[in-house]
Amino acid sequence: MEIIFLGTSSGTPTRTRNVSGIAIKMINSKSWNLVDCGEGTQHQILKTNLTLNNLQAIFITHVHGDHCYGLPGLLASTAMSGRTVPLTIIAPGTLKSFLENAQKVTQTRLSFEINFISIEDISKFIEVEEFDIELVNLSHRVSSYAFGFIEKNIKPKLNIKKLKKEGIKPGPAWGALQNREDVLLPGGKKLKSQDYLLEERKPRKIIVSGDNDDPWLLSECSKSAQVLVHEVTYTYKAAEKMAKAQHSSAKLVSLFAKELSIPNLVLTHFSPRYQSVNTTRSSIKDVENEAREFYDGNLFLANDFDVFHLNRNGKLVNVEL
User: Which of these is catalytic: 36, 66, 286, 304?
Assistant: First the structure.
């Protein structure tokens, strides 16, 4: 599984960080999904190998502008790219009228159908092409959600040792067995697929959270997750002064991740006050130091265009784009 960060700032962009946007996909797959679409997201996409024609679904965590103002422009550009395949948008219901009005006022005509699904109409799970999606309601100034991306279509591993021991050479029979099909060999020997398949591994899961001041709302969802991507807008001291904003601090999220034994934690959505270099003002290093004080797992502070791979053993690795 792959995560590509398109924007890691909160509220407003900075010279080095755009506002929220995250791509989730399977490694080596052209299909991808977008979580949040702050202003300028389509510009960020141009700097990656992602294409709008291969975008499967857009998930919006909540209606604040730094998470959705980029939608009208992205949809218009998608139409101008020649897309004709329907596009699914899963978002708070009020965003539907926002998009319809933007298209009406600007006389934008889309070349593809939008399949808009209101989050409020989903009980807990929804399915897209390569993932099952678990929804969690969060705590923020407006309704906000987290999305748990659970991989589908896990192919079982063949018991190659057993196949070789029985003299069954690599070929079409191996592929059929892996697809859970029984095989009749020349000579009449029948192979039952279940006899040559190893126990399937558990599906991997990545949680991408919207704005949220109570990480413990993700407790149940996190029990089966290998990765948590969570907003950390402030340090703990700053968050106390900004309580009405209902955002999380590095301390709060790190304590939660440690308590739930989440092996990989990625922090994002940093206040513009935290500069990328040390200055007399606050630094992003302050956020990192606070997080490392309370969490001893695999920790990352995301930057724009960071690419992460979650391998089959559940370890998250930062790779070059």
Answer: 66
